[in-house]
Amino acid sequence: MSKQNLLIYNTLSRTKQLFTPIVEGRVGMYVCGPTVYGDAHLGHARPAITFDLLFRYLQHLGYKVRYVRNITDVGHLEHDADEGEDKIAKKARLEELEPMEVAQYYANRFHDAMKALNCLPPSIEPHATGHIIEQIQLVKEILENGYAYESQGSVYFDVDKYNERYRYGKLSGRNLTDVINNSRELEGQSEKHNQVDFALWKAAQPEHIMRWPSPWSNGFPGWHCECTAMGRKYLGSHFDIHGGGMDLVFPHHECEIAQAVASQGDDMVKYWMHCNMVTIGGQKMGKSLGNFITLNEFFTGSHEKLSQAYSPMTIRFFILQAHYRSTVDFSNEALQAAEKGLQRLMNAIADLKRITASKESDAETHRVASELRQKCYDAMNDDLASPTVISHLFEATNTVNRVLDHKGSISAEDLEDFASTMHLFAEEILGLLPLGATEGASPAREEAFGHVVDMLLEQRAIAKANKDWTTSDRIRNELTALGFEIKDGKDGSTWTLNK
């Protein structure tokens, strides 16, 4: 196991803490996944990429990681305060489909988008509908411990009672008075003792399609139950990391903490991690606001706000260029800059194969090569500072380009350090691939393509040696027209692809 001191920001303590797993060498991580009633958008890509980065890094450090990410396919009502239709059932009614058809269709689409973004699949991906028994058991335990009550076939969590012994609001920093004052009196909510109480089980109305038998009524679980029940089933009553978007801190994760403590007497999660929002014009991007752009629209360029199509790798790089706890504001200009930056980085990594090592490195090249790996580790260990890792990789890129332009020299040892470190952090940990790699190009195909260009440049060198300037110029001009930049140096010609 690599000896690294990883600091992560714990939302619960509001500080960076040294990561020490509950069980040495093993990590249990639960991340809130999508509610599958529509296509994934840029806001969904952020937590997926953030926790994929964490998953990759923990595995690289040598931990055996069980990564659980759920699929919400029941119980998520239109409004978080236990009112409105189930989001999936509503979509099914409007499209005259079975709810599970809707859930399956959008779950498949979500998986396709995640694969395109090069997000590793989780270890386990449980569905809420597959764990109704576990959720009913959770509700029974909370009732038995006196922190819930039954009302007209529904079961509600008694926040006031819980708050007498424990603190409701410790994750979000809210106190109960503020929560009560901000709660609306909702139509049909008179069955609650207090407006702040939340549903653990809801009795289904006659028109409600999705329903299961329970000791209290035919109904369905409250939205907050699934993650507590499934987290405990697959990771145990105490596990290391629970992650999600910052919009889930309240009420979803606050309610999860209350459910766990009310059912088992203590906290279930050691570290709570949250990524920030993706904004568009300064406003959170989301389905409820109708201002979202789906990932498929980004990949095809089919949304009116997009000036072009953007590859999945451009989206991934764009997200990783910002620290996961800062907001990311969408703009075409920012995405175009990300596309150019990624191309530059990937060109440099590919160009490493074409550098001929010298006996020794110049001082600047040796400094960058010798410091690069530890600098990247230091950045990752500082709460996954991916923008800092990228800045170090760009410094390495500048050095590679300087050597390619014959303005510096590099030893075989330093060249090997560059190659292994850049591959490790850019590809294995940040999960970046050459542009187009996830759309069907294979590494072998890319390598063959590079050999063809090298062969053309060899033919051009022969033509120049023979003073056949017509052939030499034609090869150069045609490569330039295809997007290749050709640089001539005293040791021969080099190329980069600028498309």
Characteristic terms for this protein:
499 residues; alpha/beta; 3 domains; four-stranded parallel beta sheet
Radius of gyration equals 27 Å
Round the mean pLDDT to the nearest integer and report it: 91
Q: Which percent range describes the beta-strand content?
A: 15-25%
CATH architecture of the largest domain, please? Answer: 3-Layer(aba) Sandwich
Describe the structure in your own words.
- The chain has 499 residues and is of the alpha/beta class.
- The protein has three domains: 7-275, 3-Layer(aba) Sandwich (Rossmann fold), CATH 3.40.50.620; 295-439, Isoleucyl-tRNA Synthetase, Domain 1, CATH 1.10.730; 443-497, no CATH class.
- Helix content is 45%, strand content 16%.
- A four-stranded parallel sheet has the order 4-3-11-12, with helices on both faces. It has a four-stranded antiparallel sheet with strand order 7-8-9-10. It has a three-stranded mixed sheet with strand order 14-13-15.
- A hairpin with a 2-residue loop joins strand 16 (484-489) and strand 17.
- The longest helix has 23 residues, at 443-465.
- The chain is elongated and about 95 Å long.
- The two termini are 40 Å apart.
